[in-house]
Amino acid sequence: MDYDALTEQLQSWQREFPEWLRLESLGETPEGRQLWLAVVGREPERLRPAFWVDGNMHAAELCGSSVALAWIEALLELFLEHEGASLGVSESVRRVVNDGLFYVLPRMSPDGAEMVLKTGRVVRSVPRDTRPATRRPRWLGRDLDGDGQVLMLRYRDDAGEFVESAEEPGLMLRRQIDDPGPYYQLAVEGVIEHFDGVTIPTPGAFDDHFPDLNRNFPWSWAPEPDQEGAGAFPTSEPESRAVVEFATRHPNIFAWENYHTFGGVYIRPLGHAPDVEMSPTDLSLYNQFAMWAVEHTGFPTVSGFHEFTYSPNQPLRGDIVDYAYHQRGAFAYTCELWDLFRQLGLEKPQRFAESYVRLGRAAHKQLWRWDREHNGSRIFRPWKPVEHPQLGAVEVGGLDPRVGVWNPPEQRLPEVCEKQIQVLLRVAALAPRVRLSCVERTRLAEGAWTAKIAVENLGYLPTYVLESARRGPLGECPRLELHPDGCTLTSPAQHSLELDHLVGWGRGAFSLQSSLLATRSAGSASKTWVSFSVRGSGSVRVRLSSPRLGALETLVEAPLE
Predict the structure, then answer these.
(1) Same domain (yes/no): 478, 417
(2) Which of 83, 56, 86 is nearest to 69 (CA)?
(3) Domain encompassing residue 237
(4) Is 157 exposed, middle or buried (CB count within 10 Å of its CB: 0-12, 13-18, 19+)?
(5) Residue 443 and residue 411 in one domain
(6) Which own/partner pairs from 7-13 qualify as long-range (CB within 8 Å, at least 24 positions apart)?
(7) How far apart (Å, rounded) are the C-alpha atoms in residues 506 and 210?
(8) Using CB atoms within 10 A of its CB, is residue 350 exposed (0-12), middle (13-18) or buried (19+)?
(9) How many CB atoms lie within 10 A of CB 76?
(10) Which listed residue, 165, 184, 401, 450, has the most CB atoms within 10 A of its CB?
(11) What is the C-alpha to C-alpha distance for residues 452 and 449, in angstroms, rounded to an integer?
(12) Domain for residue 214, yes or no?
């Protein structure tokens, strides 16, 4: 979907289901597009543990928007309780999801997505460049043949690094020592800024657009040249700043899904250190997630540090999942949608990140054949001669990775979305679920009475969500407040009480506590009781709140005479 179609879909849901979906804008992009956030749930204004899902922070990775929209649609179906709308989950999962709260940002980079959809121009995140002007020569993407698309450019050069495949027309391959000519150099379709008439600059990842939103978040941010695409400072971009500001105002976010393409893999923390430095309790929870991921999608789950650093021991800095896990205390992970490697029958190396670089000639030729047989020949475009204003005779066309490489063919989207929804439903079911109830009221002499309140966590996760977040600023214990009406508390100290955290019943996987041999429970660690005394015949409003839980209330009335 382009921006207008996406906006209309979200607005139509809001018109049709105002009791379940509230649409708001986190901000406006430099090109005037809204960052639409859908707040979904029964009573969407009531704060409680919430699950955040975002997609399309990288401009060309449009499939993330599709999955995010499918997730909203699945939630609305569950709320409608349509016949057959079970989505393949148990009643216990449905029950938790039915009372959940969900923040969904389908498109974090609407300006970038629009550029990619309409022109094909290569844009990492945002189609702008706010860096100070320099005299450095660089490539600027431009449509040279008037077809409205910005693809690739090739020109002959005896020292060229590429040759065209003899068997697969249009397919450019890395030159090998036995290859006959002609030889070519490749660049983006466009022109050279500050061209001196002789020197042709090497095309760069951020030539005419900057920065990468997934290097612009505050946790572990590092500037250029330590981290390419970092931006001028953390949250220098309106899109990343809007997300951080919202998340800061909403510490109730307990889980965070960040969608990318491509790869067919989930990437979990830690991103900056080995697993031995990770909380064992957190790691057990991610182990449980990994089991669901394989069961429902076939995707492995890998460590950001061990298996998804492009250069070993050089972690990526300023990414959104590190921010969500370390600063927001959320169960956070990334999904690289669309397993192109599986489509081509390629084996995955031990370090998953190497999948992207171990694509030799055989893999490129297999991709060319797959494109012809399953993708309508959309990836490899014919080369067309053009007179370049600076270089003379060149050809434009070549690789168009938008559909088939970066994103699945449209007919495969339902399959991709359905599998992801199965995983999303199970992550949503991890939420802490606190119940507040009066279990006992006793009438005393002289108009006094007592009440006993039970506070129970019925959810999988504890009230602090992650062990690693317990000692941080979000680890504040739940607080119970008593507000009498028509009566008075016998002790002023009862007005506000700090409770201990309540554990959940979940234990993750592959830990001592999760073993079938560990046939012991945590006793009453998931519940506590509070008693208070009152004089008078009114009622007491009992309110429980914490940063992670939001707030819930119950009314306790005086017992009958």
Answers:
(1) no
(2) 56
(3) 46-117+210-338+407-428
(4) middle
(5) no
(6) 7/34, 7/36, 9/69, 10/36, 10/38, 10/72, 10/106, 13/38, 13/72, 13/76
(7) 43
(8) exposed
(9) 17
(10) 184
(11) 10
(12) yes
CA distance 401 to 123: 12
Tokens of 174: 């890395």
**142, 147, 153, 157 alpha-carbon torsion, rounded to 10°:** -120
What are the residue ranges in the chain where pLDDT is below 70? 82-86
Q: How many CA atoms lie within 13 A of 46 on its CB side?
A: 12
Q: Any residues with CB less than 8 A from the CB of 230 and at least 6 apart, and which?
A: 211, 212, 215, 216, 221, 222, 223, 224, 317, 318
pLDDT tens for 423-482 read 999 999 999 999 999 999 999 988 899 999 999 999 999 999 999 999 888 999 999 999
Task: Assess if residue 481 is contained within a domain.
Answer: yes
Tell if the pTM clears 0.90, that is, is over it.
yes
Classify 7 as helix, strand or coil.
helix
Residue 118 C-beta-side C-alpha neighbours within 13 Å: 11
How close are the terminal C-alpha atoms of the chain, in Å? 64
What is the per-residue DSSP string for 424-487?
HHHHHTT---EEEEEEEEEE-STTEEEEEEEEEE-SSS-TT-SGGGTTSTT-PPPEEEEEEEEE
Per-residue pLDDT at 86: 64
Phi, psi (rounded to 5 degrees) for 188: -70, 145
The answer to the question of residue 185 being in a domain is no
Please indicate, yes or no, whether residues 58 and 86 belong to a single structural domain of this protein. yes
HSE (CB half, 13 Å, CA atoms) of 326? 19
Q: Which residues contact 96 (CB under 8 A, 6 or more apart)?
A: 428, 429, 431, 433, 459
Instruction: Round to whole Å and give the CA distance between 271 and 214.
Output: 13
Structure-block tokens of residue 425:
């439903």
Angle at 481 between CA 480 and CA 482, to 5 degrees: 125
CATH code at position 231:
3.40.630.10
Closest CA to 235 of 224, 257, 250, 219: 219
Are residue 412 and residue 500 in the same domain, yes or no?
no
Q: Which residues pair with 260 in a beta bridge?
A: 336
Per-residue pLDDT tens for 271-315? 999 999 999 999 999 999 999 999 999 999 999 999 998 887 789
Residues 328 and 454 in one domain: no
